[in-house]
Amino acid sequence: MNEYMRLAKPIPRDTLQMLRRDFRTTGRGNPSIQPDLIRSISTKAGKTAGGLQNVIDMLVHSVEQPIEERGLHLADDAIVRAFPTFSINAQTIRVDGGFIILINDGAMMLLHQAAKIMGRSLALSQVEAFSGKPPMSTEQAISALAEVVLAYIALGDTTYATRFPADASRRGMVASRITNDAELFLVAHEYGHLIGGHLDNPAGTTSLIMPTGSQLNLIRKSHEQEFAADEMAVELMTIRLAGRLGDDLETNRLLYRINAGGPLFFLMLDDLITRARNEVDGLPPSPLANNHPPSRERAAKLFDFFTNLGSEEMVRLAAVFTGWVTLYGGPFIEAMQEKIGHQTTS
Predict the structure, then answer these.
(1) Quick check: 226 and 48 in contact, CB under 8 A?
(2) 206: enclosing H helix or E strand
(3) Could you tell me which residues come within 8 angstroms of residue 204 by beta carbon, excluding any fewer than 6 positions away?
(4) Considering all CA atoms of the chain, what is the largest pairwise distance in Å, rounded to the nearest integer?
(5) pLDDT in tens, 1-39
(6) Could you read off the pLDDT of 174-217 as tens digits, one per residue?
(7) What are phi and psi of 10, to 5 degrees?
(8) Which uninterrupted H or E stretch holds 80?
(9) Are 154 and 11 in contact (CB under 8 A)?
(10) Which of 328, 301, 313, 158 is nearest to 226 (CA)?
(11) Beta partners for residue 95, in sequence order
């Protein structure tokens, strides 16, 4: 049987109904952060050792390195932890002595699996790393991506979707690079807020009621602060990449060109998820109000930012990766609706 046509782990029949009931419940819990919840966040790294928290720790190191090299100042102390916030964007809470930046572990798995699907289905000649017929057809890619996004939105866990084996080819290398750069942008964006002092001058807070009844008061930044943090994140990524490549840019030309792809792939994937929530019937409502500017606006500003850096090659390749996401728009929504229909009627 074709590996792309295998059945994914089935979603429990009553899960969607249960999530709807749970997410509609509001007003529960203590308005202040409960001590047991703080302990859960603070100790989660130990529970996920060897897993996503280790990945996050490496991303943090990759972001802090260019900050130290440039002598940039962090306005506040913060630690970064994996925690299920139900948001593709990182979120921040204030605690005594600083802040905890929360990275949704489900979002990281979403990025990983979506980039794998993209790497297996891209068939564009301008991407020099890809040659020959892609192993995954457009129809298979749309179905696979719809399955991954459905598992993420409905359950916060993309392991319920079909998972594809590691790919050691050039396609796999590029997909891995896009994943890493998307995750790096996710973390670097939050450090952009720290450098800009945004957390000491927030626009307010957004409440997240956890399924357990605990409440998180997430710091909400202004749109101007979010755009500024996007640009700072890209600057940090570019400084880091320049340090790695040195003067040997020609040898690492593809790696340099891909640098813009990760952040923009991240933003357009977020836009696709927002569209699915708005247009697909039967999905549970988001437990968290979006406290970021629309992703399309963020992507447009980053395109301008990369263009001003003077790298036409970087912008052109970034457009290839973001175009892959937007190209599937209509068929993707139809595939999502079909899959949610099968789940609710089975």
Answers:
(1) no
(2) strand 204-209
(3) 220
(4) 59
(5) 233 223 333 334 444 344 334 333 322 222 333 444 444
(6) 888 889 999 999 999 999 999 999 998 888 888 877 666 677 88
(7) -65, 140
(8) strand 78-82
(9) yes
(10) 301
(11) 98
Instruction: Find the DSSP H helices in the chain.
Output: 15-24, 35-47, 52-69, 105-121, 138-155, 170-196, 223-245, 253-258, 261-279, 295-308, 312-327, 329-345
Rounded distance between C-alpha atoms, residue 282 and residue 4, angstroms: 25
Place of tokens 């996050």: 56
Average pLDDT of every residue of the chain: 77
Average of pLDDT values for 220-244?
88
How far is 102 from 94, CA to CA, in rounded Å?
Answer: 11
**In this structure, is the dihedral angle defined by the CA atoms of residues 224, 227, 233 and 236, taken in order, positive or negative?**
negative
Q: How far apart are CA 83 and CA 187, in angstroms?
A: 14
Measured distance CA(84)–CA(332) in Å, rounded: 25
Q: pTM of the predicted model, to two decimals?
A: 0.82
Beta-carbon contacts of 259 under 8 Å, excluding residues fewer than 6 positions away, are 181, 237, 238, 241, 314
Task: Give Cβ neighbours of residue 60 (< 8 Å, ≥ 6 apart).
Answer: 80, 187
Q: How far apart are CA 163 and CA 181, in angstroms?
A: 21
Query: Which of 205, 186, 159 minimizes the C-alpha distance to 89?
Result: 186
Report residue 62 as tokens.
């990759």
- Where in the chain are the domains? 24-345
- The answer to whether 202 and 270 have CB atoms below 8 angstroms apart is no
Q: How far is CA 282 from the centre of its chain?
A: 23
163, 240 Cβ separation under 8 angstroms: no
Distance set, CA 321 to CA 123, 134, 317 (Å): 11, 15, 7
Instruction: Read off the amino acid at residue 177.
Output: R
